[in-house]
Structures are given as structure tokens and as C-alpha cells.
Amino acid sequence: MLYDLIVVGGGPAGLAAANSAWEKGLRNILIVERDKELGGILNQCIHNGFGLHRFKEELTGPEYAHRFIEMLKDTSVQVMTDTMVLTVTENKEVHVINTEKGYQVLKAKAVILSMGCRERTRGAIAIPGARPAGVFTAGSAQRYLNMEGYMVGKRVVILGSGDIGLIMARRMTLEGARVLACVEVMPYSGGLMRNIVQCLQDYDIPLYLSHTVTDMQAENGRLSHVTVSKVDEKRNPIPGTEMEFDCDTLLLSVGLIPENELTRGAGIQMDMRTNGAIVYENMETSIPGVFACGNVVHVHDLVDYVSQESEKAGAAAADFVLNPKENEQAVQLKNGSGVSYTVPQQVRIPRIEKNLEVFFRVRQVYGNSVIEVKDGENTLCSFKREYMTPGEMQQIKLPRVLLDKVTADTIEISVREA
Amino acid sequence: MKELVCIVCPKGCRLRVDEENGYLVSGNSCVRGAEYGKNEILNPTRVLTSTVKMEGGLYRRCPVKTNIAVPKGKLFDIMNALNAITLTSPVQVGQVVIENVCGTGADVIATKAL
Amino acid sequence: MYDVAIIGCGVVGAAAAFELSKYKLNIAVLEKENDVALGASRANSAIVHAGYDPEPGTLMARLNVQGCAMAEQLCKDLSVPYEKIGSLVLAFSESERKTVNKLYDRGVKNGVPDMQILSREEVLQMEPEVSPEVMGALYAPSAGIIGPWEYTVALAEVAVQNGAEMKLRTKVEGIDWTEEHYVIHTNKGNVEAKYIVNAAGVHSGEIHEMVAEKSFEIRPNRGEYYVLDKCEVTKARHTLFQCPNENGKGVLVSPTVGGNLIVGPNAEGVSGEEDNHNTAAGMAFVQRMAAKSVPNINYRHSIRNFAGVRANLNKDEFQIGVAAKQFIDLAGIKSPGLTSAPAIALECIHLLQGEGLSMEQKENPITTRKKIHFRSLSAEDKQQVIKENPLYGRVICRCETITEGEIVDAIHSPIPPCSIDGIKRRAGSGLGRCQGGFCGPRVLDILARELKVSPLDILQDKDGSFILMNETKKEV
């Protein structure tokens, strides 16, 4: 079976990509989803706040997914659920297994990788102490709570102030748990301000910035205490600042990592900074006709931007199949001072229709500041911002007319205080 | 004088709201901040999202929300009201689960088809 | 009345049970935990040592070399992951070069096959990530890596299939001799046995002292480790040891059979087996020491830390022998205990015979174990097994590609696990980079379904390690 397009993963990225490829004229599209239903992680994100940019209203995760799933109903896009992709090859073979048809090798003219991301675990940050039950990533606890209907604990400490952790602080409080503290190693929160206020402050949950968990004790195989210490500028714990919390649960919200086993297996070039594939302006990877979008490319903080980016990938995949092009010379996007990564990493200027959208993150908190875009030594353009934090993804649009002036082989994006 | 952090945009302005002076807001950088500050003191409201028991669906719980923001002080009352509900498949997105929950004027609606 | 009661089911107890179960004997295995392999057997370097370390002439030297030679075939027979990748002992100074030569001589005396002394260039060619400061190495191609808990589980499972009784959650509290046999007092009542094998690991001293005068001292010793994601496995192709010196045996860097990189251990005296915590100081020490061998390990790719408590002795030898009439000590089995275990089991049989146990071989004892490991099957075989059992077509652990079929197989295996970690040790789910974050809730669901219990009753690991606290939405 030869498909025009196979989309790996039916979460928000895959759904938006498939829809957009359909709208651009592809007809023979398949979404492969490992779960029993489409929607991905949105299904367990029952809180609201999704869709403000995309739909100009506040939706819950399942509602946001539902909008996209409904759009699919009017198309001929095929969906294979409960199906795992084992391998994606360089020549666009997709090896899948499921209980019904066993092992199948599917072929496609174009492939979109939209596998999402996974949570960093206790092992990733090497928390000392006992290794009892009661230590969960916030996402696993969220699944137990919102989909299965089980509470993972009664007295909870949360490490990391990422959005999932903050959301879980509120959820568990509403369901009767006592959330004792949210502990963040950085001097600023990794989550959205809205969540700090509505998930912590609303329920009088203290947020300890520049603190971390330095020890864990267990009783009878279950967590019984955690020790929290203040850290210095180098994030080393300061002796003498220890606080003990009597708790049965530690939730970890300490970051997300793009899930790129398939990408690496296909031999696609990776970016060490994003942990995702290096992509062109249209989300194409180093293998022509293989695209990537959403959290598998870089971790987003708003699903609205995942959809936006994925629609770009879907449209580009359609274009790849319907209007094959020669590969043009690309310009590299370079991270200047204060910028930790950009997506895309490389740009084929002739392929830009009106604007090049660049997502990036800053390395630290900035007040009044300037984003500067340089072609070699010349400043192409600059943007003013009142406030930027590493927790909030930044977006700029560079008009094609400006890009046509580029003469160097790199464009540098940097940030400085105004 | 009450202090709070504005959540209208990511900047997080530290607002001061003067209750004795017509809820005059200071510390804001924009008009939206002033409005937020006043409302947060006079009548803070939130959309509540939670789950209810579910029978016959893919999962044991069905996610729900209040269709409009409800007074902050009513959140735990509404949580209690949700304990009494059990839905049976099929459930549609937007299906009303409890009308005018706890007299707030808000309906609790399902947010997922199950 | 049992012929033989084995106390403790780590790898040593399991190996003894496996060998003994080939004979016409009534065997009981008494294990205080809810599963086998819950002590040092699940928390160690997972190395099959070649045998150049122990002093020539010691029992340890003989059993190490013999156990190493047995591992390959045993693992093949029992479907246990094993790879004979060889080991290097790296030298970073003139005096360490001398140590390497000394180890070579020892190895020759101990009967270690095919060793070579490598030059700096040879080392760097074999191991491009090793520090350029290296001056040479001892290469022992017979060394290997192994799945330690799989090894233990497999040996114990076959013993059970051969009729040995596995008594889990059975803690020995006292032992009496009644002229002809022993009465073992446990939390589950008395167990009578003619012979006892003491394989109680860190507790082997306490068990010994229930029947004999104190003659050795167990000094529990903790070792801490890092496990890194598969992308870091390129940092070592062989097991890379450092030269032993006055500060201990050094920190090793090695691939694992799961395709990860393991780094550790340190060595610290602790009070007992429950003191298996990781410490900031210990982990920092491991990183610092490992950097001497392999400078560019990226600990951002760490996926797990663990610590094991080893049954070290007050001497450099295993405590193997007759402690009292019809009572055999297999005690103080520290490193290279995992390697030596199958040879220790043969030694145990020899000692039991010496104590008068008459042993008649069974006609057709089970000596092999088949296990489906979906990920390593060919495409055709994958298709075939899914056809036979569709559950092999549903991947539950996506990091390690472990299917529902393998998890269900594990649940219904001869020593049924009752915990998520029990499944992990049998099927391999949750060993990967997300550490069960994704598959944990799904495995819990399958366990509850297959065991027909409430999800609230499922454990993470040992008894008491409950995962879920209560259901939401209880009517008030």
C-alpha cells in the first residue's frame, strides 16, 4: 500500500498536520496512533486554557482535540489506532504493528513525524535518597487521576514549576489532597504566570524558588518525607537550609524531552539544543519528504503553536507530493547571545511565501529588550519586547522582502536588554 | 490595599488594588490589568474543570467543566456536587451534566465524547 | 519434610535451587520478600567477571573462572540476556601498568583464557572514548555482561518447574536442630528440612548464627550507580574497569545488555540492606571517578540512579562451607558473586553430598526456558507470534518495545510477580528512558486485570509500596 502521506502520531500535531495536508489537496493520508483514540496527551489535560490563539476561546484539552478530530470527519483521512510504529526508514517505509494485522510495512510518498515528547524523570535529574513508590512524573499522576479516577497521594510535594506540575497542584487539591509545596530550582518559575496564580496562589500553596529536593525517606516502601534545600546561583544545595516535608507523594514536573527514537532510527540530523530534528522553514527534516512538527521538534508551551507549526508541516508535505521541487541552498539560523535555540534551524528563502515564522527561546529573564536579526554584520530588523522568560516561547515573523536582502550564509538572532 | 499578580499577559505586573479608594489599581502597565485587578478583588471567578464517574466508556472518568466562570468560593461545593454524578456512555461533548450548579448560574458540561 | 531448604532467593539461592532441582529431592526456597532477586542480585554492575581479580588458590578464584565459563551456555538455555563483550582494566600510570601486569599473572594462574596486555594505541583503537591519558590495559575477552535479575528469575523459575516450592514472604526467625532434621521457624509457621542452604546474602551472618558460633562478619557495603540512555552506550564497547588500589576497586563504565551505559559503583559501609539510598556525595564521586576512564559521559542522559547493598565480608574470600551438621553456608557472596553463582551451586551440591545427602538425578529434569522477547524477533517471527497471540501486537512500553503479550506472559510465569517492578524484571517494561512514566499506568491496569484485583492493591515493588491511594469521586 502506497500512501501519499503517513502521519506518525495522532496527537495535536499529527491531527493538525493531517488536516492541513488534506486541505492542500492530498487525499490518501494515514494517521498511525498508538493509543486507542486520537488526541494524544490532550485527552488527559482536562483543564482549560487551550485554544486562546487558535480559536479565540478557552477550551479544555479534550475539547481542543475534539475540534480537530471533528474536522477529520469530513475528509478521507484514514486512522489506524492501537498501532505502534516500530521503524521509519530513509525511503519512507513505516513499519507498524497492531493486534489485528500484525506486522505491516507501509509505504508513503511523504512522512510527518509527530510523536510528541516525554517527561523527564527522577533519574534524569539524579535526586538523592530512597527510591520508594510515591514518586511520579506529573503526567503519569495526571493520567491516573483524570482518566482512571485514582489519586496517587494525600500529602504532596511538587518538584518543578512546569505547567503540568502547577495544573496538578490544583487538580489534586480540588480532589482532596494537601499540596504542601511547589519547589523550583531556578530563580523563576518554568510555568505560565496564569498557572502560578490560579493553581498555587488560589490554594495558598507556597512556591519555593531557588530550592530543590535533596533527600527522600521511605517508610514501608512508600515515600514518607522529602528534604528541600535552598540552592546557590550554581544550583548547588546550601547546607543548613534544609526543610522537611512529611509527604507520601512527590510529583516531578522537571521538563519534557522530544521523543525521537524513530527520527534517529531514520538517520535524520538532530539538533543537540532542541533534542529534535533540524528542520527547514517548512518543517522538512534532512530527509526530503520527511517532516516533523510539534513537541517532537521542540517543546512548546502552548498547543496553539503546535497546531500552527503542524499545519505548516502538513501543507509542506502536500506540496512535496503534488509539486516536487529542486532543493535550494539554505541559510542557517544562528543562535546569537541570549537565544538558546531557534526553529527552524535552516531556511530556503525562495520557498518563503510572505513571512518566515521563527520560534525561539531566551536563556534568561529579560525585561525591556530588543530581539535583533542580523545578516552577517548588518542588522536586518529588530523587535521590541517588554518581557521575556525562558518559560515562554517567543515568535517573530521575518518578511520575505527583508530576507531577499540576505547575503551571508547565516542569519543571527540575538537578544539584549534595551 | 491588596496586592496581586496580573495574569492578563506573561509580564506579571504586581498590582495594588486600593479597596478604600474605589478599587483604584496601581502597578499595572495597561488598561486590561486595571480591569483584572478590580475584578479579582470584587468578584474573583474561575472556570472549574474536573471529572465525573463514567460507566461503559473507554475510561472510568469523564472530564467536565463549568460552562462559565463561577465564584471562587463555590469551587469546593461544586466538587462535592460532582461526586453524586455517574454518566453512562454515550456522552457527547457539551452535554449538560448538572444545570445551574450550586445556584451559580453555570452548567457543568462534559468536555469529551465517551 | 523437605530434603533441602534454601534460605534466600537471590542469584546464589536461585542457582542452588536450579542445580538441586535436577535431582529427586523435595526442595523449599524461603524468601522473605514478595519476589526473588530483591537484594544485591537486582542492584549490581551486571558484569560476568573473567576472574583475574581474586587471589590465586582461593575458592573465589576457582568459582569465578568456572562461573564465567558456565554463563554463556546457561544464558542461552534459559533465555537470559548475555553478551561476551570482554573487559579492559585501564592503566593510567606506571604503577597501574604494573598492577595490570600483576592482574595478568594472577589471571593466568586462575585459568582465565585468552588475556592480552594492550598498548595505549590498542586501547584507544578499541575504545575511542577512553581518556587519551590511558597507558595500557589488560584485555580479558571472556568477560561479559548479563541481565542479573533475569538470570536469577530464570534459574528460580526452572527450579520451580522442576518441583521446588517457592515460599515468598517467608522470613526465617529461628532454626532448631532436632537430632535428625532442622525446624525452621518463620513468620508463616514452621518448615522442616533435613538440610539447609544458607544463601541469605546480607543476612547470611544472622542465619549462620542461628545454628553455629559466629565465624565471620558481614559488612554491608553500598554501591551507587548511574544508568544512561541508549545514546550514551557508544561511550564504551567493553566493560572498562580501573585498576584496584588502596581506595577500592575503582568505578567501571560498561554497556548493559539492555543497550544502556552503566557507571559505578562507589563503596561505602552501611548498616544494612535497607540503607540502599542514593547520596549526592556518592553520585558525585562516581561521576568524578568515571571521568578518569571516559571523560565525555553526558549525565544529562541519565535515566536512573540506583544503589545496591553487597554482602561484603571481613576477608577477601567467599564464606562457603559446612557451618553445622547438614547446614551449608553460601555466605558473604560479594562481587564476583553474580558470576560465580552457578559454580557456587555445584560446590553446594558437593558439600551437601559430603554431609550425607543422597542424590539421584531425575530422568528428564527441565534445564531450559523459552521466552518471547518481541523486540529481538525478525519481522517474520513478529508477524507469526502476533498471529498466534494478538497481544504481542500491542506495545505497552514504548521505550523498550515491550508488548502486552510479554507482560501477560510474565504475570502467568512460574513465579508470578505482584508488582510493577516484578513485571519489569521479567518483561523489561519500564527500564527505558521514561522509566515507566508512560507504561506504568498501563502495566498496573494489566496486572490488576490478570490478577483480578483492584488497581489499589498493585504494588510498585516490595510489600507496602502502594502506588494508588484512593478512588476519586467517592459519594459522601
Walk me through this protein's architecture.
The complex is a heterotrimer of chains A (418), B (114) and C (476). Chain A is 21% helix and 36% strand. In chain A, helix 4 crosses helix 5. The longest helix of chain B has 12 residues. Among the domains of chain C are: 148 residues, D-Amino Acid Oxidase, subunit A, domain 2 (D-Amino Acid Oxidase, Chain A, domain 2, 2-Layer Sandwich), CATH 3.30.9; 84 residues, Arc Repressor Mutant, subunit A (Orthogonal Bundle). Chain C is built from twelve helices and 23 strands. In chain C, strands 1, 2, 9, 10, 11, 12, 19 and 20 form an eight-stranded mixed β-sheet that branches. In chain C, a hairpin with a 5-residue loop joins strand 15 and strand 16. The chains are: A alpha/beta (418), B alpha+beta (114), C alpha+beta (476). Chains in contact: A-B, A-C, B-C. Chains A and C meet through strand 7, strand 8, helix 3, helix 4 and strand 11 of A and helix 7, strand 18, helix 9, helix 12 and strand 23 of C. Strand 11 of chain A pairs antiparallel with strand 23 of chain C, so a sheet runs across the interface.
Give the full name of the CATH homologous superfamily of the largest domain in chain A: FAD/NAD(P)-binding domain
CATH class of the largest domain in chain B: Alpha Beta
| Estimated radius of gyration of chain B | 18 Å
SS-derived structural category of chain A: alpha/beta
What percent of residues of chain B are in strands? 25-35%
The total count of strands of chain A amounts to: 30
Main pleated sheet of chain A: 7 strands, mixed
Strand order of the largest sheet of chain B: 8-5-6-10-9
- How many structural domains in the coordinates of chain B? 2
Mean pLDDT across every amino acid position of chain A: 95
